Automatic annotation (TrEMBL):
Cytoplasm keyword on record: yes
Entry similarity comment: Belongs to the methyltransferase superfamily. RsmH family.
PANTHER family (UniProt xref): 12S RRNA N4-METHYLCYTIDINE METHYLTRANSFERASE (PTHR11265:SF0), S-ADENOSYL-METHYLTRANSFERASE MRAW (PTHR11265)
Cellular compartment(s): Cytoplasm
Database matches in HAMAP family: 16SrRNA_methyltr_H
Species this chain originates from: Mariprofundus ferrinatatus
The protein, known as: Ribosomal RNA small subunit methyltransferase H
Keywords assigned by UniProt, alphabetized: Cytoplasm, Methyltransferase, rRNA processing, S-adenosyl-L-methionine, Transferase
E.C. number(s) listed in UniProt: 2.1.1.199
Gene Ontology molecular function: rRNA (cytosine-N4-)-methyltransferase activity
The encoding gene: rsmH
Family annotation (NCBIfam families): 16S rRNA (cytosine(1402)-N(4))-methyltransferase RsmH
Protein's UniProt keywords contain rRNA processing: yes
Amino acid sequence: MGDDNRYAEHIPVLRDDFIEALFTDPDGCYVDCTFGRGGHSRELLARLSEKGRLLAIDRDLEAVAEGERLAAEDARFTIVHADFASLGETLDELGWLQVSGIGFDLGVSSPQVDSAERGFSFQKSGPLDMRMDLSSGQPLSVKLAHVSERELADIIYRYGDERYSRRIAKAILRARHDGELNTTSDLENICFHSVPKQARHSGAHPATRTFQALRIWVNAEMEQIDAGIQAAVDHLAPGGRLAVISFHSGEDRRIRNLIDALVHPCTCPPQMPVCVCGKTPSMRWLQKKPVRPGEAEIAANPRSRSSLMRVAERISEAEGKKLAGYSGRVQ
Ligand SMILES: C[S@@+](CC[C@H](N)C(=O)[O-])C[C@H]1O[C@@H](n2cnc3c(N)ncnc32)[C@H](O)[C@@H]1O
């Protein structure tokens, strides 16, 4: 692919909504926690003044290499190879304690899914890897060598909402034991033959949910979300924005609950007339419902179909104190 097309490899999802949600101050400091191919970062840079700054993070070395090319062209931009669970340390080291906006566009990028050798896709035969960061962690093949059937079934059920999780887990471990599980095609085939015949050709491919679940497990994605969002909230300035794009209901539920606990932290029993727990809100929702792509975006980029975005704003301590006692009960 020629240089001009480098960042066209991934079409940014909900791009304009994401930027509108995050952007409040042209002179502000922003963080893109999931650089990918920089679709969102480039749009943010287009709106920033000479004084504005953008830090991007990605755990994928190819994404970071693309970010380094952008950093060489634009002095307002910096990229760091890290996972966003360590966002707090990264921002502390840089002294970024009052950030104007922090965004997450979760999951994998098109270049990751489209390269067979990364092992994310059941449509292409590749190794059983699935790591976003090839410089650390264990590939799927190694993790499968140390997991029990019960744990594996739980993972496939919990992260994939897969109703046939037990049958699939059993078949995966049997094939591994028999030396018949070596590639993503083998895994796809096992998932396909583990579900009842009538479920093989209706709806999404029978491997979709299992591949999603295993990817979440390999990359500890839920733990990353917990730590990343907490660090983001801790480093936002009052009025600073948090925008999170996710791609499936389990992820969205987790994000909604994490932010809800900061919007409504009061733990007093509902019958208490006033709040006595002393927990004050630190965030407010900017949209009650998640933002979803319109038909035109879905038609232009089918991968955006399942995306949804949550947006919240950091509030000051004084505002939080004013709201305390109402949050979680009256609101
Ligand atoms: C959906 S893509 C982002 C695409 C990007 N917004 C764009 O427009 O090009 C997700 C990116 O986030 C990275 N990523 C996912 N989880 C991460 C984590 N916990 N820490 C750092 N990077 C992560 C992936 O490696 C991938 O490059």
